[in-house]
Structure formats: structure tokens, C-alpha cells
């Protein structure tokens, strides 16, 4: 009656015989997983699955942080099994709230667990049907255009993190689409009907930031003629997007941290505190490791914000997507042209690929819009894009060509492995030491996570 077996991921001690039998009887095939090796997106990840995380297993409850990556795995409806005392542990409560559909306190009958698993699976499958258009899922994510490997990985990350309530930290160069990603996460989450409130932490003067974030009561200061609701409170029930978080002044970092710990706000001049339920997404183009080393950003705040991380790929590593995006923007803005445009000339296409795009997608949009207005022929030329000098690939020596190819392969590998040198080096078929040397030579060291850990060899 259940058709082909559905996968049930089981994290913990071996499932009891009674539980295993009942799960099998309901069409589940059990796969034990190790939190250190979460199921890969490709593996059973395309289809919805359910999971049991047995927090009564040794070590799990002591170190719930080690379970994060497993629990965030793609399209799995988790049910936690816990001991009665776990429910008083704030770390465990948070873990369950952020990642699980339900929890069952042991000892409970196996039937109760199996029912919860069925429910979690049903919810995840529903979510799947509602928000995945199979035709488009892999080349467009809402307003995002792109189908290269790096973008597909990004879409998968968006879908994964949208299923949880845990804080997400989006890093990436300027103009890569961080804000678009934040919106996409919100729109795929259960909070999509609730507000999405963005705040640009760098654009508000420090002395106004407190009142902007938390609001104030009437009479809190001269000119406070009426109560004002802060942005945090305005986002209640929905998502709060803290943009340019790397530019948040130190003095405001302390009060944001307090809010994240207590989930309560106090309006300026207020006597009472109000509970607020928001999902936090933050983004920055600032290199946070350096900011923390230099004392510009509190490490404790960073670790609260960066439970799940998404890295936005720079435009220069997106290959054919550059053309795809340029054409998309041409379609979108072509009505601004004085004549009917037929597209990009071959030299313009070459220039699009040869250029390094420091301003990423935003720069591409601006150049295409300008070219649409300025072009005098039927085709957009490299010079219309103001990329005339990139039209012809500048003559290159073999050594330069090799360097360019190596650089790009390294950037893509680091992106794919979140800056983890060991894994990137494995994929590239070189040693960590060699990779480290190349990173230094190509000025890419900031892209690696903890680059110095390799210094011992
Ligand atoms: N994949 C994409 N497809 C279509 N449009 C995109 C894509 N990525 C970014 N854009 C567009 O590029 C512009 C910049 O994107 P966004 O504001 O999200 O970038 P950002 O990373 O937040 O930049 P910054 O660091 O400068 O704040 C926006 O107009 C956005 O709509
Ligand atoms: Mg932005």
C-alpha cells in the first residue's frame, strides 16, 4: 500500500527491534547515519525522507551542536526522541525547535514514534510539492537566474535552510545576490506569510540604531511624541534580515547579542520587555574572520548568527550564466532602447567572459542597462558595455593561461567545500601544502577557512 520503500534516516544507537519492525511494517527502510557524515543531497536527497534523531544516545545530548549539519540535511522531516530531563535543556529545546517537526519523550510506545515520523514525512512532502516546480527548480529560484553548478548548489542550500528556523549567515562579495537569497529563504519557509523586514546595519548612524532596532516609548527622549515600534518587533512572526552585519558598530553588537540570547526586546524608555519570535538571516561582504581578529566584530555574536552558512558565488566563476544573465537583463530592459536590439555581438560575449566582474551581478545589470541605451546598432557591442579592452582576449602566454585556469578551479573548489582546505585539495588532486602555497601566490587566502591550520604541513 505504500509503494516503494521510503528512507528513514536513523541517528543514534541502533533502533530497537520493536521500533524497527513497526517502521518496516509501515513501508520504511531504515538507514543508520553518523552525524559526522550527513546524507548527501544527491543521495536520497532528491526525494523527501524522514528521520529519527535519538537524543538519548550517548554524547548526543551533551553536544547537540555536532548534530547541526545532519539535521539541516536536505528534505528530511526529523523527529527527536528525548528523555524527560532533556526538555529542560535550552540547547536541546532550540535544536528541536529549529530542526524537528516533533519530539517524543521516552519511554513512549513505538507506535507513537512511528506516527510522528509519518506526520513529519507528510509535512515535508507537502512542503516539497507546494514549493518545487520541477521544471524550473534547477535553473531559477524565484527571481534568481542561473543554472551553473555553483548556482544549483546555492538553490539546494536555500531549500535546505528554508526548512529550519536556525539563523543563517550569507557571505559573498558585493552585488552577488545576498539579499535575493535572503528573500528566497523567507519565501520558501513556513514564515512566508509573515513579514520580511530588512535592516541595513551599516546605513543607520550608531546613535539611532538602538531605537530603529528596538523602538521607543512616548517621551523616551525629547521629540519622542509617540511610541515607535522597532524593526525587530515589526518582524515578529517573520524573518529579520540584518544586512551588512559586518558594519554593525561594536556598541550595537552587545544589544543585538542580548536580544538573540533572550529573544525579548525592551523599547527605549520602556519598563517591560516583550517577547519576539523572528527568524534571523544576516549578510555581509566583510571578511568576518579578519573582522573578529581585528576586534571589530564580537566572536560570540558571530557564532550566534552563523549557525548555517551560505556562500554566494562570485559572478566570474559562473561560466555560461554570465551570458544567461546578460540576456535576461536585455529582455527585461530592452524597452529602454531606441531601436530593436538583436542581442549581443560575439565580441561583446567574449568581453562578458573575459572581464572579472568585481561588482558582480549588480555591475552586470548596470552595464547592460547602459549599453541598451547607448548602443547605436542592432547588436550590443563590447564598447557599449564599456568593456572594449576585454573584447579580444589579451594575448596570453601559456603560463598566464594556466594561472587563470588554476585560479578559477581553486576558487570553485573552495566555494564547494566552504573554504575547507583539506577537502578542496583532495578534489583538486593536490596536497594541502601545495594548495596553501597557491592560495598565497594568487592572493586567495581569505577565501579559505582557517588557512593557517595548514602551516604545520
Ligand atoms: N542570480 C541572479 N539573477 C538575477 N538577478 C540577480 C541575481 N543575483 C543578483 N541579482 C540582482 O543583482 C542586484 C544585486 O543583488 P543583491 O542586492 O541581492 O546583492 P548583494 O549581495 O546584497 O549586494 P551588496 O553586497 O552590494 O549589498 C539586484 O538587483 C538583484 O536583483
Ligand atoms: Mg545587499
Q: Explain this structure to me?
A:
- About 40% of the residues lie in helices and about 15% in strands.
- It is α/β, with parallel strands linked by helices and about 450 residues long.
- The strands form six sheets. The chain has a five-stranded parallel beta sheet. The chain has a five-stranded parallel beta sheet with strand order 9-12-15-8-16. It has a two-stranded antiparallel ribbon with strand order 6-7.
- It folds into four domains: about 5-130, 3-Layer(aba) Sandwich (Rossmann fold), CATH 3.40.50; about 165-310, Rossmann fold (3-Layer(aba) Sandwich), CATH 3.40.50; about 320-390, Helicase, Ruva Protein, domain 3, CATH 1.10.8; about 400-455, no CATH class.
- β13 and β14 form a beta hairpin.
- The protein has helices spanning about 15-25, 70, 90-100, 110-130, 150-160, 180-190, 205-215, 230-235, 250-260, 290-295, 300-305, 320-335, 345-355, 360-375, 390, 400-415, 420-430, 430-440, and strands spanning about 5-10, 30-35, 50-55, 75-80, 100-105, 140, 145, 170, 195-200, 215, 230, 240-245, 265, 275, 280-285, 310, 345, 380.
- It binds adenosine-5'-triphosphate and magnesium ion (MG).
- Magnesium ion (MG) binds near residues 178, 179 and 243.
Helix content: 40-55%
* Strands in their spatial order, largest beta sheet: 2-1-3-4-5
What small molecules are bound in this structure?
Answer: adenosine-5'-triphosphate, magnesium ion
**CATH fourth-tier homologous superfamily of the largest domain:** P-loop containing nucleotide triphosphate hydrolases
Percent of residues in beta strands = 15-25%
CATH architecture of the largest domain: 3-Layer(aba) Sandwich
Please indicate the count of domains.
4
Question: Which overall shape is indicated by the principal axes computed on the Cα atoms?
Answer: globular
Radius of gyration: 25 Å
Unreliable spans are 130-140, 451-457
User: What's the main sheet like?
Assistant: 5 strands, parallel
CATH class of the largest domain: Alpha Beta
Q: What is the tally of beta strands? A: 18
Mean pLDDT: 85
As for the CATH topology of the largest domain, it is Rossmann fold
Helix count, DSSP H or I runs of 4 or more residues: 18
Amino acid at each position: 500500500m505504500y509503494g516503494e520503500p521510503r528512507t528513514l534516516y536513523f541517528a543514534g544507537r541502533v533502533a530497537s527491534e520493536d521500533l524497527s519492525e513497526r517502521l518496516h511494517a509501515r513501508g520504511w527502510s531504515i538507514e543508520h547515519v553518523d552525524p559526522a557524515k550527513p546524507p548527501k543531497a544527491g543521495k536520497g536527497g532528491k526525494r523527501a525522507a524522514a528521520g529519527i534523531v535519538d537524543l538519548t544516545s550517548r554524547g548526543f545530548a551533551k553536544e547537540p551542536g555536532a548534530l547541526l549539519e545532519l539535521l539541516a540535511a536536505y528534505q528530511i522531516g526529523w523527529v527527536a526522541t528525548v528523555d524527560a530531563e532533556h526538555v529542560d535543556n535550552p540547547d536541546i529545546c532550540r535544536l528541536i525547535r529549529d530542526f524537528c517537526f516533533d519530539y517524543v519523550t521516552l519511554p513512549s510506545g513505538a507506535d507513537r514514534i512511528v506516527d510522528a515520523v509519518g506526520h513529519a514525512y507528510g509535512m515535508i512532502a507537502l512542503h516539497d510539492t507546494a514549493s518545487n516546480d520541477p521544471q524550473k527548480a534547477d535553473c531559477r529560484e524565484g527571481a534568481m537566474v542561473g543554472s551553473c553548478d555553483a548556482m544549483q548548489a546555492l538553490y539546494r542550500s536555500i531549500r535546505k535552510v528554508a526548512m529550519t528556523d536556525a539563523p543563517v549567515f550569507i557571505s559573498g562579495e558585493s552585488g552577488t545576490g545576498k539579499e535575493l537569497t535572503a528573500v528566497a529563504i523567507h519565501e520558501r519557509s513556513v514564515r512566508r506569510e509573515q513579514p520580511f523586514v530588512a535592516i541595513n546595519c551599516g546605513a543607520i548612524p550608531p546613535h539611532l540604531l538602538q531605537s530603529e532596532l528596538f523602538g521607543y516609548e512616548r517621551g523616551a527622549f525629547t521629540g519622542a511624541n509617540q511610541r515607535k515600534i522597532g524593526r525587530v518587533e515589526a518582524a515578529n512572526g517573520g524573518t529579520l534580515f540584518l544586512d551588512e552585519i559586518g558594519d554593525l558598530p561594536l556598541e550595537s553588537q552587545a544589544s543585538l547579542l542580548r536580544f538573540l540570547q533572550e529573544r525579548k526586546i525592551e523599547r527605549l524608555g520602556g519598563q517591560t520587555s516583550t517577547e519576539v519570535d523572528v527568524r534571523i538571516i544576516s549578510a555581509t561582504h566583510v571578511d568576518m574572520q579578519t573582522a573578529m581578529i581585528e576586534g571589530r566584530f564580537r566572536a560570540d555574536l558571530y557564532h550566534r548568527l552563523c549557525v548555517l552558512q551560505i556562500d554566494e558565488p562570485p559572478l566570474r566563476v559562473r561560466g555560461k550564466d554570465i551570458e544567461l544573465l546578460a540576456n535576461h537583463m536585455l529582455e527585461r530592459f530592452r524597452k529602454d532602447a531606441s531601436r530593436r536590439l538583436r542581442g549581443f555581438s560575439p565580441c561583446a560575449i567574449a568581453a562578458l567572459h573575459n572581464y572579472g566582474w568585481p561588482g558582480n551581478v549588480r555591475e552586470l545589470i548596470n552595464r547592460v542597462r547602459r549599453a541598451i541605451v547607448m548602443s547605436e546598432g542592432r547588436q550590443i557591442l563590447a564598447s557599449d558595455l564599456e568593456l572594449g579592452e576585454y573584447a579580444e582576449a589579451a594575448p596570453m602566454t601559456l603560463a598566464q593561461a594556466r594561472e587563470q585556469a588554476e585560479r578559477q578551479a581553486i576558487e570553485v573548489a573552495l566555494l564547494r567545500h566552504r573554504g575547507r582546505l583539506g577537502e578542496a585539495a583532495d578534489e583538486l588532486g593536490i596536497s594541502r601544502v601545495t594548495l596553501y602555497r597557491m592560495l598565497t601566490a594568487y592572493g586567495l587566502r581569505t577565501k579559505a577557512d582557517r588557512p593557517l591550520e595548514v602551516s604545520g604541513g
